[in-house]
Amino acid sequence: DFVHSFGDMHLYSNHIEQAQLQLTREPRQLPTMQINPEARDIDNFCFEDFTLENYDPHPHIKAEVSV
Fold it and tell me: Has residue 59 been placed in a domain?
């Protein structure tokens, strides 16, 4: 099942090719985020307290900016 909620959804005519490419891609396993268990105070978290594991993105899809 695919369930999604779109806000301000639109597709520009010069992005049709990129959208078609996106639709051919198979979803990959979601990454996980680990938080340093020694970091206890949310107000003192820093970048190094977080690690993203198993992130495997598809290649970038280049598209011109629409104005």
Answer: yes
What's the number of domains the chain is made of?
A: 1
The mean pLDDT value for 5-21 works out to 91
Query: pTM of the predicted model, to two decimals?
Result: 0.66
Distance CA 61, CA 46 (A): 31
- pLDDT confidence band for 60 (50 / 70 / 90): very high
Structural domain boundaries, residue 40: 28-67
Please check whether residue 64 lies inside any domain of the structure: yes
Which helix or strand (DSSP H or E) is residue 17 part of?
A: helix 16-24
